[in-house]
Amino acid sequence: MPHTIPDLRAGDVAMPVIGLGTWQLEGGAAQAMVEKALELGYRHIDTAQAYRNEQDVGAALAATGVPRDQVFLTTKVWVDQFAQGDLQRSVEASLKRLKVPRVDLLLLHWPKPKPALSETLAALNDVHGRGLTRAIGLSNFPSALMAKAQTASEAPIATNQVEYHPYLSQRTLIAKARAMGSTLTAWSPLAQGKVATDPVLIAIGQAHGKTPGQVTLRWQIQQGVATIPRTRNPARLAENFDIFDFALSDDEMARIFALARPDGRLGEWLDPAFEWDVD
Ligand SMILES: NC(=O)c1ccc[n+]([C@@H]2O[C@H](COP(=O)([O-])OP(=O)(O)OC[C@H]3O[C@@H](n4cnc5c(N)ncnc54)[C@H](OP(=O)(O)O)[C@@H]3O)[C@@H](O)[C@H]2O)c1
User: Fold this and answer.
1) In whole angstroms, how large is the CA radius of gyration of the chain?
2) Which residue from 160, 162, 203, 258 has the least number of CB within 10 angstroms?
3) Is the pLDDT of residue 111 over 90?
4) CA–CA dist 9, 158 (Å, integer)
5) Active site residue 51
């Protein structure tokens, strides 16, 4: 029996707290995992123009019996499509590949110095105004740039999707996003599988009959952060979704926060002109 997934209020839309990440899933594997996820009760799918699997995600959505309006679909605009006109055309092409009239959330995949943020935000607001997406957001934006983007945007910035797992603190960004009425979505939420061998997460999991992966995902959603783990393993797909029947104590949450370390970042591709938040 699938769980009912709690939603997170993100800007003016409701976003299910857990979704399936699809980076590195392509072709039949991507389609099969998305279909299986929807069967298990997942109602949030994360893709991107850069993942080259929008057509496979679209095929899964077309094949599933789950009504389109019950699935929260996110895609991301790649950085070479940030100019006025390019962005709109790239989103129209994404929708064609996804075989849907609109997505639920459209993100700018990474910040970029040119064209100006105001130009890209105007284009993003244009596709929002035309109903091609229900909400807009960002990915990999440090907090100062996130605030600048919100100032340049008519529509609320629903989320900022950034790397977040037990080894990387995002305290500053979470607080600032919250203060702006926005949210954080965690990418590489399982630290690309590294959490599985962590003694602290294993010990906390044993106390609840849960795996380190489940403890990590629970730690994220319990903070009000959305999470989008990826797997190509059907058993783990079910495992990652089975996080709604236990709760971590304040002490357990604190023990996981204490795992953050200065060199914990896995992905480093920010333009040198921008600076990550320092916690
Ligand atoms: N916006 C961005 O710039 C950005 C960047 C990176 C990622 N993302 C998004 O975030 C999603 C997730 O991030 P990610 O794919 O980098 O990494 P992740 O979800 O942290 O980790 C995926 C890895 O962990 C393994 N795994 C999955 N479930 C597990 C579990 N319960 N226990 C132990 N290991 C487990 C998977 O292996 P198996 O397949 O063998 O299970 C896979 O190797 C992506 O798919 C993408 O949608 C966004």
Assistant:
1) 18
2) 258
3) yes
4) 8
5) yes
Q: Give, using CA atoms, the residue closest to atom 11 of ligand 1.
A: 21
Instruction: Provide the 3-class DSSP secondary structure of residue 162.
Output: strand
Residue 133 has pLDDT above 90, yes or no: yes
**Cβ neighbours for 138, distance < 8 A, ≥ 6 positions apart:** 107, 108, 111, 146, 149, 157, 159, 160, 161
- 232 residue type, one letter: R
Tokens of 106: 């459209």
- 7-193+224-233 adopts what CATH topology? TIM Barrel (3.20.20)
pLDDT of residue 4: 67
Segment 150-179 mean pLDDT: 97
Q: What share of the chain is helix, strand, coil (3-state, %, to 5)?
A: 45, 20, 40
Mean pLDDT of the chain: 95
Say if residue 258 is exposed, middle or buried (CB neighbours under 10 Å; 0-12, 13-18, 19+).
exposed
Give tens-digit pLDDT for 162-174. 999 999 999 999 9
83 phi, psi to nearest 5 deg: -80, 155
Q: What percent of the chain clears pLDDT 70, i.e. is strictly above it?
A: 98
- Helix 250-257 crosses helix 199-208 at what angle (to 10 degrees)? 160
The DSSP-derived string for 77-115 is: E-GGG-STTHHHHHHHHHHHHHT-S-EEEEEESS--SSS
Closest atom of ligand 1 to 192 CA is 21
Task: Give the start-to-end residue ranges of the domains of the chain.
Answer: 7-193+224-233
- Report how far ligand 1's centroid is from the alpha carbon of 91 (Å): 25
